[in-house]
Amino acid sequence: MEERGISKQELKSFLKAQKQRDLTYQKVLSSMCTYPHEIAVYAHNLFLDSNLGDSGLFPGTKEIEDELIRMIGALLGNENAHGYISTGGTESNIQAIRAIRNRKRKEGLQQMNIIVPKTAHFSFDKIEDILSLEVKKAGLDDELRVDVNLVEELIDDNTISIVGIAGTTEFGQIDPITELADIAHNNDIFLHVDAAFGGFVIPFLDAEYQFDFSLDAVSSISVDPHKMGLSTIPAGCILFRDESYLADLAVNTPYLTTNEQCSLIGTRSGAPVAATYAVLKYLGRNGLRAIVDECMQQTRMLVRGAKAMGIYPVIEPVMNVVTLLFPDVDRVAKALEARGWRVSTTRAPKALRVVIMPHVTEETIEMFLNDLENAK
Ligand code: PLP
């Protein structure tokens, strides 16, 4: 840092120039983020100085968060769920597993493990490291859902939790949560559902999937407003079936306005909390359903267009993620990148991965299919 500051004008033009170097989302098909809704941006800006890490100073924001947790809980089958607005799926997953780890540690268990699908997000690798427990990875069935028989085989006396993914990061697949719930119930273990992506999609799909608190054995759910909830970044949400799990996370907080804190981070912005509340209140379930409908229409359009070129998806899309098989995926991804697109690739099977977020319009898909024809 220099001794003397620079002028606002100089700074602003520097910031604008840097911002222009960033991509806009228009041709970004690799991300699970999108433009936040304008009402979310408005609310975010209004609450920029609010710190929920010391929530006694911000009772207005705290009340919004409590109501928001009730709203998201009700969407996911339990309006009495408890939790908080986190920084995203990673923090939510860490906190879900940390709660049950702490509970079992108090009961005297030393060596612990959890079982996740092979398709689990890499946040579970961080969990293995941070929480000092083993993360066992269960194989998949032909449709890339976790194979429940393999999950059962991996369970031992030290297994404290199994995890199901409702909307896998790479393939947008939904694990058989009902069957995982039976396994969790029969073995008396915790079931965490990672619906970071799917939580704001699955309730609005034409097909019905059971994946939330309406299944008695589901103990916690991660769901990210900053993905398909059109909120500002960083907005995740961790929900527990009941309040007792929050006690497993609580630490005493001397010198603050509250006695204890359950979040992983300390200072915690109220801005994305207000943003999430605003966008969900503004859109309502009908608005969210319309957004999911649009994304699914574009998803089907892309698959139809690809099939017409002789390119087939790894699985028929369950939600708004399309994975396409090519003999030479990396070459195609590079050729698309040269045309301004950002796509990603999956690991196994290797495929081109396209996420159809709300910024993807019919025109986007038309242009993309054109370029795909030339790139393949
Ligand atoms: N879980 C799933 C299923 C995800 O798709 C992601 C991110 O894409 C995460 C967790 C991690 O979310 P974040 O990047 O917001 O921490």
Describe the model.
This protein is an alpha/beta fold. It folds into 2 domains: 8-36 and 285-375, Aspartate Aminotransferase, domain 1, CATH 3.90.1150.10; 38-280, Type I PLP-dependent aspartate aminotransferase-like (Major domain) (Aspartate Aminotransferase, domain 2), CATH 3.40.640.10. The chain contains 11 helices and 12 strands. The chain has helices at 8-21, 38-46, 59-75, 89-106, 123-130, 148-154, 177-187, 244-247, 271-308, 329-338, 362-375; strands at 82-86, 113-117, 134-138, 159-165, 190-194, 218-223, 236-240, 251-252, 260-261, 321-324, 344-345, 352-355. The strands form 3 sheets. It has a 7-stranded mixed β-sheet, sandwiched between helices. The chain has a 3-stranded antiparallel β-sheet with strand order 10-12-11. A two-stranded antiparallel ribbon has the order 8-9. A hairpin with a 6-residue loop joins strand 11 (344-345) and strand 12. Helix 2 packs antiparallel against helix 9 and helix 4 packs parallel to helix 5. The longest helix is centred in the last third of the chain and has 38 residues, at 271-308. The N and C termini lie far apart (49 Å). The model has no long low-confidence stretch (mean pLDDT 98). The structure holds pyridoxal-5'-phosphate. The site of pyridoxal-5'-phosphate has 15 residues, from helix 4.
